[in-house]
Amino acid sequence: MQGPIRPDDSRFDVERDTVLRNVSRAARGYDAAAVLAREVARRMGERLDLVTLEPRRIIDIGCGTGADLRLLAERYPRAEYVGCDFSLAMLREAGVELPWFRRLLPGGRAREAIRACGEAVRLPIASACMSLAWSNLMLHWLVDPLPALREMHRVLAVDGLLMFTAFGPDTLKELRRCFVQADPMPHVHRFIDMHDLGDALVKAGFAEPVMDMEIITLTYDSFDALMRDLQLSGAQCALAGRRRGLTGKAVWSRVRAAYQMHRRDGRLPATFEVVYGHAWKPAPRSIEDGRAIVNFNPRQRGRQA
Q1: Helix (H, G, I), strand (E, B), or coil: what is residue 138?
Q2: Is residue 201 part of a domain?
Q3: Is residue 161 part of a domain?
Q4: pLDDT score for 99
Q5: With bands split at pLDDT 50, 70 and 90, how would you rate the model's confidence at 242?
Q6: CA–CA separation, 237 and 228 (whole Å)
Q7: CA distance 175 to 166
Q8: Contact 122, 148 (CB under 8 A)
Q9: Residue 107's domain is classified under what CATH number?
């Protein structure tokens, strides 16, 4: 599946250890820098208005510092929560106390969400125990999202819902073009197309996938402000083919000059293509040994057809 999702070029493979190092370094100041992630979470939450769901257990996969758990707890105050992330540094910042009004519910108390350190491709969670799996801007950090989607399918109960977002191909298109002009080495990730993510959902076993996308444009005073924002949110380049040494002053100078061509009304734009997706876990059609499941509901005696 990796072929149709990302170009067949190992330079653009994402290095897991580099991503971990980047996000862990950013953990302490992440909440102040994650303006886009919070806005995407808010818009993602609005899409929950379109579904009928009263989840008992909710997992946030790639929870970071846990901000989305608080957002979800306001919507579903009776649910139990698990935040999962592969960065211990992020989880240490995620002391998520759920809203005070939980105390007003029968048996309610404002306890913390459970925090679990683990990989999206190997979730440390029992099978079929979650009602809602939520993942905000995490899947694009994986070389291939399919194993993670299969894990999300595994931990969901039947009729459970997966909701996720990821960055699409037009993300940071201005920065990508400027670097291509200045340096042959890759500097900006290639993100996954919405249709490929939809196909991956079906391959992972999900049903009724719904995909959508929108463009969000942030603007900056300067090129350095954009690069600082990416660094503070842990979103630096983690490509296998990136330049291993320091990028030279000449390259940076050419990139800055090229980016100035995008300036409008005194501001520099940065485009983010945000892909939204949700899908349901259907009842299985067969058991593990391959035998089909047949539902047989005999008519009651005397009941007319």
Answers
A1: coil
A2: yes
A3: yes
A4: 52
A5: confident
A6: 13
A7: 18
A8: no
A9: 3.40.50.150
Which residues, at least 6 apart from 239, have a Cβ–Cβ distance to it below 8 Å? 11, 12, 13, 14, 15, 186, 187, 189
Q: What is the mean pLDDT of the chain?
A: 88
Distance CA 286, CA 292 (A): 4
pLDDT at 136 over 70: yes
Bridge partner list, 135: 164
Mean pLDDT of 213-224: 98
Structural domain for 140, as ranges: 11-168+191-214+275-280
Amino acid present at 115: R
Q: For the chain, give the number of residues.
A: 305
Q: Which two tokens stand for residue 114?
A: 């459970």
CB neighbour list of residue 305: distance below 8 Å, 6 or more residues apart:
299
Q: Which residues pair with 83 in a beta bridge?
A: 60, 115
Domain for residue 301, yes or no?
no
Helix pair 35-46, 67-75: axis angle to 10 deg: 20
Q: What is the DSSP string of 114-178?
A: EEEE-BTTB-SS-TT-EEEEEEES-GGGSS-SHHHHHHHHHHEEEEEEEEEEEE-TTTTHHHHHH
Is residue 111 a part of any domain in this protein?
Answer: yes
| Residues above pLDDT 90, as percent of the chain | 74
**Listed residue (240, 207, 223) closest to 175, CA to CA:** 223
Domain count, the chain: 1
pLDDT digit string, tens, across residues 12-21:
889 999 999 9
pTM: 0.86
- Give the CA-trace dihedral at 58, 62, 66, 71, to 10 degrees: -50
pLDDT higher than 80, residue 296:
no
Q: Cα dist. 160→74, 124, 132, 188 in Å? A: 20, 18, 6, 35
